[in-house]
Structures are given as structure tokens and as C-alpha cells.
Amino acid sequence: MQLSTILPGPVTGSVRRLAHGVRGRPPGHVVHGGKTLIAALFAWGVAASWSPDGRPYLAVATALLMVNASTVYRSVTKAVQNVVAKMAGLVVAVVTAQLLGATAGSVAVISVVAVLAGPRRSADDRLQIASTAVIGLAATATAPVGSLVPPALQTLTGAVVGIAVNALVLPPLYLDESDSAVRGLAHDIGALLRDMGAGLAERQLVAHARTWLHRARNL
Q1: Which of 83, 65, 85, 87 is nearest to 75 (CA)?
Q2: Closest to 128 in 3D by CA, of 58, 37, 56, 32
Q3: pTM exceeding 0.70
Q4: Can you spell out the DSSP letters for 86-103?
Q5: Can you tell me the distance from the alpha carbon of 8 to that of 108, in angstroms, rounded to the nearest whole number?
Q6: Rounded to whole angstroms, how far apart are CA atoms 51 and 65?
Q7: pLDDT by residue (tens digit) across 112-150?
Q8: Contacts of 154 (CB under 8 A, 6+ apart)
Q9: pLDDT single digits (tens) 49-98
């Protein structure tokens, strides 16, 4: 027995649309969720063996930022900006720790340097520089300066992992937006043709012809 004889028309249409969606490419949020999980697990697995206490949180955080970029090119540019900002923050932390130590004066210097980091840097870059510098300053207060090397390596590892996953696992394309636009146009044309068919079948040509013409011109 066919599905259309068991279920009402609207339900049958919904089931067909659902089946078509399952056969096609997964929805965007499913793709992002899967890629995020893969990037997080991969970054953890790569960096855990040599990270302090086996907890590469910075690598995972960086990978998550890179993997959800709208395009592969964007993930590369974000990675470069992120790594440069964090490296700058670590350098500021080392310099201020050597000159002033872990004091309130060091925090003030870091804040000033972050604000004056340059007009070309965005507010997010300056915030990353300042936050990384403060975290690095706290680390140098309880451990040698060499303890800042693992966070730097974690940042690089997370950036590489995020870019790799974004490029190799269902990579985002500019065509996605075009594909969505074409599907929307096809849906609108189908709706117009169905309305025209129903109107012609009910002999309502005069009442609806102007509306159909207006909709067709808009399409």
C-alpha cells in the first residue's frame, strides 16, 4: 500500500521533504557540529601527550575557532591572526615579567600596550593580546619563562588542526549560498505554478491573472 493512501496529503508532503533532505547534504548545523567534534578530539589527541598535565585546552579552543570559519580561506586568515595575536601577547608577558615582575604595574603596562597595539588591529585582536599577556604573566609568576612554550605550541597545533578539518571534512564553499538561492527560486516557481494550476482548474483566470503576472515578474 502506498504512503499517500495511509497518510493525509500535508503529512505525506512533509515525509517526502524529510526523505529528500536525508538523501541530500546534511543541514549546516549538523555539519558544523560534526566538524567541531572531530576538530576538538583530534586537537586533544595530538597535543595531550606533550601538554602540561595532559590537558591541551588551548589547542582545543584554537581548533574550535578555526574549524567553524565560513570558508577554508577564512579559516587560514583567522588562524594567522589568532596565532600572531597570541604570540604578541606572550612576548609582552615575557618582557613585562622580566622588567617589572608579576605586579600591578605589569598589568597596567599590558593594558596600555594592548590599547596602543596599532590602528590596523581589530578590537578582538587587541583583546586576545591583552588576555594572553595577562595569562602568560600569571604563568611566569609561578614557573620559569620556558613554561610559556607549551601554550605557544598548543596554539599552533590547534590552528593547524582546525584548518585541516575545515578543509578536508565537508569543506565550506561559496557555492552553498548559491545553491540555497537556486533552491529557494525553484520552490517559489513551483508554488506559483501550483497556484496557477488550481486557479485554471477552478476557472478563476480573470480573478487571479494580475496577481500571477506580478509574482512571475518578481521571480
Answers
A1: 65
A2: 58
A3: no
A4: HHHHHHHHHHHHHHH-SS
A5: 69
A6: 20
A7: 877 776 555 667 777 778 887 887 777 776 666 666 778
A8: 47, 51, 56, 57, 58, 59, 62
A9: 888 778 888 889 888 888 877 778 888 888 888 888 888 888 888 888 77
